[in-house]
Backbone:
């Protein structure tokens, strides 16, 4: 049985998963007495994970889905912080399949209201990058570093032949810029263009920067944790599907679990 943390009132954490497989891995660890509330086409699982109060929900894909989910979690469920977990395409040369990226900041790579506003700037906000909460991100990165250093961090699959076949070697942890847009980046040409335009970008996905903008508006601390499923190139779609089947859920559930168990006051 999971031990409950000592104090009665603990901050409620939203954990937003990008894919059903990831949500399933997290749900498997929920403490027994949770409720499921259907709203706005989503199922919000309200309960405790490793003894900590949480709301677990599947986000949906793309920036609008992420923004809607974040608003609902803040306004309807009163969460005090938000952690997004999912997969991403690697952009920077050293970001390989199986690596983990914790966002330092996020940017919408498809935002362009030029010449009225600088490219990538969210109009009328004066900013293009939205910083993730530093203490939360550091704590998640520390949990990720611990999990990745352990043998068998990809769950029962371990670093099996099938995982190796996906191109996964010893996974590394990265922290920095993640870019988001309403496109699955699946050609070398597009990936190279993104890297040339945004050389600091480590990884590309479809939700994080939208969630970041909403959390920024609401003053809600957030972090984004991504496992690299593909290199955002011509084989991205093949690698993506296989990665999700074989490993995607294990790493993020283990990292989020480790982080929750490391929270102060337990
Ligand atoms: N999520 C995972 N891989 C991705 C890619 N190549 N493009 C956009 N989002 C992704």
Residues:
């Amino acid at each position: 049985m999971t031990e409950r943390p000592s104090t009665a009132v603990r901050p409620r954490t939203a954990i937003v998963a990008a894919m059903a497989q990831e949500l399933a891995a997290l749900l498997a660890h929920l403490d027994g007495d949770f409720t499921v509330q259907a709203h706005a086409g989503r199922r919000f699982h309200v309960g405790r994970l490793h003894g900590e109060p949480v709301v677990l929900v599947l986000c949906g894909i793309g920036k609008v889905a992420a923004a809607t989910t974040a608003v609902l979690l803040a306004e309807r469920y009163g969460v005090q912080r938000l952690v997004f977990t999912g997969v991403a395409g690697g952009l920077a040369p050293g970001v390989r399949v199986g690596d983990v990226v914790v966002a330092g900041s996020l940017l919408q790579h498809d935002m362009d209201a030029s010449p009225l506003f600088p490219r990538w700037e969210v109009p009328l906000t004066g900013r293009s990058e939205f910083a993730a909460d530093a203490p939360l991100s550091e704590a998640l990165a520390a949990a990720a570093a611990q999990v990745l250093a352990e043998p068998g961090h990809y769950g029962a699959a371990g670093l099996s032949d099938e995982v190796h076949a996906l191109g996964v070697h010893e996974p590394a942890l990265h922290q920095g810029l993640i870019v988001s847009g309403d496109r699955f980046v699946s050609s070398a040409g597009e990936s190279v263009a993104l890297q040339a335009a945004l050389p600091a970008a480590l990884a590309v996905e479809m939700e994080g920067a939208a969630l970041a903008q909403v959390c920024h508006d609401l003053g809600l601390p957030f972090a984004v944790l991504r496992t690299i499923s593909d290199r955002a190139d011509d084989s991205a779609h093949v690698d993506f599907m296989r990665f999700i089947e074989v490993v995607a859920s294990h790493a993020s559930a283990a990292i989020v679990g480790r982080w929750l168990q490391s929270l102060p006051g337990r």
Observations:
- Residues 79 and 114 are 35 Å apart (CA to CA).
- The first strand starts at residue 13 and ends at 17.
- Residues 87-89, 184-186, 204-206, 229-230, 232, 236, 240 surround adenine (CB under 6 Å).
- Strands lie at 13-17, 35-39, 42-49, 52-58, 81-90, 100-108, 129-131, 173-180, 201-205, 222-230.
